[in-house]
Amino acid sequence: MYWMGIDIGSISTDLVLLNDKNEIEKELYLKTGSTPVKAVCDGLKILGEMYSSDEIRGVGITGSGRNLGAAVAGADVVKNEITAHARAAAELDSEIRTVIEIGGQDSKIILLENGLVTDFAMNTVCAAGTGSFLDRQAGRMGITIEELSEMACKADGYVPIAGRCAVFAESDIIHKQQAGAGEDELMAGLCRALAATYMSNVAKGKKIIPKICFQGGVAANRGMRIAFEEILGYEIIIPEHHKVMGAVGAALLAKDKECCKTKFKGFETGTLDLKLETKGCSGCSNSCQIINVKRSGQVYGCFGDSCGRFSS
């Protein structure tokens, strides 16, 4: 029997299956693109080719698209990213006190004590403190994000980059290139700038206590790990499954709930042609915009209402 976790983010949609020992049986890391419904369905279809719906004991969903995911797949637990990432970190090591999480479009810091969240913060609207900052600069320079990481690790030092703003950072990089700065040192400077922006923005005013866990897709960049360790003066733990820790946490939360009967709609959902339809509700002053997930013209799932009148 397995517990499934789904994390629907702006960049990736992650699915994991946990066994009864809380070990990852299977993980998927899919691109969300502009079609999160398709990403969820694709993931369910892939898993459905290997597992039976009857083997799923519970489903937890998190991420910015969690309500959509619950309407499509069915969920026993729907939680925000802070709760999910914290649960995964606490399971990894009960002594973890600080979680650094940086994804493609957002970043967050979570402070823990005895496995419970005591404080947290998320980034502002600027992309300078997220993975897209590195992706954009790597693309502009004609290299992959993996090459950027290797170059940063080889650097003897780093060139200071004005990383408080993504636009100003790009101008500063061009200026430093024209001044003859080495490429390896520039890449190390980019990583350092992202880490420094994170510390001065997301982690501002927070007391960083070890053990420190680094999660999210950006944790794959070894240059970022070096930058954080130099700034903080502590060793950084990077989980083996750092990319899908949100989904792991969601699966653990579903297991914690111990449902008698799961609300999971089955892996066959992955083969359905589902469409989204928006309609207004004037039943009260909330004036909610209801999102219907439709199959062959019939409502398959629903979300967006504040009162639960439709989604329940």
Kindly describe this structure.
The protein is α/β, with parallel strands linked by helices and 312 residues long. It is 35% helix and 24% strand. It is built from 9 helices and 13 strands. The strands form 3 sheets. The chain has a 5-stranded mixed sheet. A 5-stranded mixed sheet has the order 8-7-6-9-10. A 3-stranded antiparallel sheet has the order 11-12-13, covered by helices on one side. Strand 7 and strand 8 (116-122) form a beta hairpin. It is globular and about 60 Å long. The two termini are 27 Å apart.
Can you describe this structure in just a few lines?
With 312 residues, this protein is α/β, with parallel strands linked by helices. It has helices at residues 36-48, 66-73, 81-92, 131-140, 145-154, 166-178, 183-201, 222-232, 245-257, and strands at residues 2-8, 12-18, 24-31, 56-62, 77-78, 98-102, 107-113, 116-122, 212-215, 236-237, 274-280, 289-295, 298-303.
Measured by DSSP, the beta-strand proportion falls in 15-25%
* Estimated radius of gyration: 21 Å
- Low confidence ranges: none
Shape: globular
Strand order of the largest sheet: 3-2-1-4-5
Q: What's the multimeric state?
A: single chain
> What profile does the largest beta sheet have?
5 strands, mixed
Structural class: alpha/beta
Q: How do the SSEs run, as a string of H and E?
A: EEEHEHEHEEEHHHHEHEHEEE
Q: Number of helical runs?
A: 9
What percent of the residues sit in helical stretches (DSSP H or I)? 25-40%
Mean pLDDT, all residues = 89
Write down how many β-strands occur, each being a DSSP E stretch of 2 or more residues.
13
Termini gap: 27 Å
